[in-house]
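Try it yourself: sequence plus adenosine-5'-diphosphate, in.
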Amino acid sequence: MPREEHVFNPLALGPESEGGAVAGGAARGDASRAEGASGEALLELGLRPARLEEFIGQERIVGDLSVALRAAGGRGEALDHVLFSGPPGLGKTSLARILAGEMGTRLHATSGPALEKPKDLVGILSQLQRGDVLFIDEIHRVPTTVEEYLYTAMEDFAVEVPIDSGPHARLVSWRLEPFTLVGATTREGLLSAPFRARFGLFERLDPYPVEDLITILLRAAELLSVGLDVEGARLLAERSRGTPRLAVRFLRRARDRAQVAGRQTIDAPLARETFEQLGVDEMGLEEMDRRILRCLAASGGGPLALKTIAAVVDENGDTIENAYEPHLLRQGLLRKTARGRILTPAGAAAIGVRLDPPSEGSDQGRLFP
Ligand code: ADP
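Structure, out:
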């Protein structure tokens, strides 16, 4: 097939052409994506840390990124491609925005499911200027056909697009400006090895310790202009499953409660009342967690397949796996086996039932209501 070579001229396309939010730095990126978003979503955007030094916790990652940023800046090059993995709400998107902000470049945000066809990707790539950050959330959901285009884009800063068919068919090779791909995934195991190998930096985010969540909450309370004492912050932090997004969400609910009750400060009693209203218990379990555990209990403790649980509790299997299970597993309330999910004695206790220890050679114990 004949080949043609071209260079994309991103300036000709304008910053808002199809394919994702484009922004002059972190703050504008947030605003463009938030168009039509609820007040809550806008609020969350305002709470996102804008600079690396404002990002609380995950010190090793912040250290790695700071070195990589300084080195790339010193060489006048784009930052190496970065892959962030970890459960939702731990700060992957925030870090992507921070990277663009720190480099003084634009952030283009999209997600794996939005890149249905190669042309969706090419549309975004064509807008990238030198050093820009292309953020792909849920990158494990990028279709294989699109993934292959990403390989050459990442490695050679070029894409080859087939144009026309039959006798006029030709490959058009587009050169791209050097850019940084920042991928975020909750399921790093689903990324193919060749894809993973193309990232220079691979950072796994872990749940935050309570002390870091307290610092995040105190900062957020200041930004929201609401009083929060340390005991109140500790209580909110302890039930937040190591997740800043949850901690901030609880803070907002507590703030609503304080406002309605005419109280100035969120203290431990007010935080406790908020959790009672939200149905969040001392272990940080919400109603959906309890439904998952009750579903297992109702089947004698399991093992149950994820899709069975999903059907019974009426929730998407992916959401159960990504958002609910990690906490249940960490707390030892549920176990994954080759035959399915199993309720542990601690999991049974958490919903007020008793599970006898498993007999020799069996996966599961007997359940007593
Ligand atoms: P993810 O992309 O991993 O789902 P986000 O970056 O969207 O997570 O973070 C969710 C919210 O949690 C952000 O809006 C921000 O308010 C807060 N947040 C996350 N990590 C931190 C942190 N390290 N310091 C301060 N706030 C944070």
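One thing you can check immediately is this: The CA atoms of residues 280 and 286 lie 5 Å apart.
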